[in-house]
Design a protein that fits this description.
Its EC number is 1.1.-.-. One of its GO terms (biological process) is tRNA queuosine(34) biosynthetic process. With about 375 residues, the protein is of the alpha+beta class. The chain folds into two domains: about 170 residues, no CATH class; about 140 residues, no CATH class. It has a four-stranded antiparallel sheet with strand order 1-2-7-4, with helices on both faces. A two-stranded parallel ribbon has the order 3-10. The chain is elongated and about 80 Å long. The termini are far apart. About 45% of the residues are buried.
Length: about 375
């Protein structure tokens, strides 16, 4: 066995010892789906995620992430099964139930893997990438043999389904690659496409992120969620798993081997909590969690919509209090929710707010939603 083969075996063994059920190796090259990605961007399907378009040229080759890169190692880490929704009045995407930031966890987990390369190949360069660099991790994961692209655009593996994170380790050392995954195992199944509550799929393998609940609740920050998509959110306050939950390949989902990604029981049980806390309290409770991505305003906005979708009159008091929130985005969401609940008390609160409201957007929302329209 040559040096590249020995190093490749060491990398695979180390990755599995670290708790990664999947590890694959592929040469650094221009992603073969880059043209599709560019067309997707040009269609505007990325929405407010402008960083993708700003860095479009950097996606051309992994050498824009690590100079003289030769090899990309991709690992997958499964995350915990869902427990939200049993005692909570809202749902959170499974990946966030642990309340640990996967970026931080995976960066730490990959350090020993980088050390394996440095110890074996002194002078080698490495760079850990966890969802923040201009690298199409999903595409390189397929090239490394980890799975195929599902019609819901996610990577699927026969053994562990699709509930996993991807992380990459780039290096200028040469390793023996794994064969790419060239087949699809979705067949004629279209469950994921049909189950999407907001009809976010434009076709198989194509997602309009602007309609995706995960995008709306996480990436669409500092803006109201489009009114015509709010009812489709249901009780999803952060992220969405619907297109994965219905996938037959996820029937046998097992608990993660990484304790950091198991449910820690730290998620509040009532969506109202996000409307009751101020910026300082939010930062204390959620500053180091996935909820920090949309921030307090985003989570309070999402909470108001979830409570509105529940039409539970017991939520009206916290929503009425939310009419005094410093953010017009939160106030507007509370207006919509109260108009959905539509009790006498809720409508009286909206009438009172109409004369007090100073923001034009919120004032217009009060007039519009009080008329009985919710779209």
């Amino acid at each position: 066995m040559n040096d590249a083969g020995e190093l490749s075996n060491k990398v695979r063994q180390t990755a599995r010892k670290l708790g990664f059920p999947l590890v694959g190796i592929t040469p650094a090259a221009r992603p073969d789906t880059l043209d599709f990605f560019k067309r997707w961007l040009n269609s505007g399907f990325h929405g407010e995620m402008g960083y993708m378009q700003r860095r479009e040229a950097a996606y051309e080759h992994p050498s824009n992430v690590l100079q003289n890169v030769k090899t990309i190692i991709i690992v997958a880490a499964t995350y915990g099964s869902d427990s939200s929704g049993e005692e909570n009045n809202f749902r959170v995407a499974k990946y966030a139930t642990s309340q640990n930031d996967y970026h931080d966890v995976l960066r730490e987990k990959l350090k020993p893997l980088a050390s394996t390369i440095h110890d074996t190949s002194p002078g080698a360069k490495t760079r850990v990438v966890v969802d923040t660099a201009p690298l199409l991790e999903r595409d390189f994961a397929r090239l490394a043999g980890l799975g195929w692209f599902g019609k819901n655009t996610l990577l699927i593996n026969k053994h562990i389904g699709s509930f996993f994170f991807l992380a990459a380790l780039l290096t200028n050392a040469e390793l023996e690659p794994d064969p790419p995954h060239s087949n699809s195992h979705c067949g004629t199944c279209t469950r994921c496409l049909e189950a999407c509550p907001t009809n976010a799929f434009t076709d198989a393998y194509s997602l309009d992120a602007r309609k995706c609940i995960s995008y709306l609740t996480i990436e669409l920050r500092d803006k109201p969620i489009p009114v015509d998509l709010r009812s489709g959110m249901g009780d999803w306050i952060f992220g969405c798993d619907v297109c994965q939950d219905v996938c037959p390949w996820n029937r046998k989902q097992s608990e993660t081997d990484l304790s950091e990604f198991r449910d820690q029981g730290r998620t509040p049980q009532d969506a109202a909590h996000f409307l009751e806390i101020d910026d300082e309290q939010f930062q204390t409770e959620f500053g180091a969690t996935p909820f920090s991505r949309p921030g307090r305003v985003g989570m309070a906005r999402n909470a108001a919509i979830v409570l509105g979708n529940s039409r539970d009159s017991e939520s009206q008091d916290v929503l009425i209090a939310g009419l005094g929130d410093a953010s017009p985005i939160v106030r507007e969401a509370c207006v919509w929710a109260l108009a959905k609940i539509r009790t006498k008390k809720a409508m009286e609160a909206l009438r009172s707010q109409e004369s007090l409201e100073t923001d034009e957007m919120v004032r217009s929302a009060i007039t519009h939603f009080m008329s009985g329209s919710h779209d």
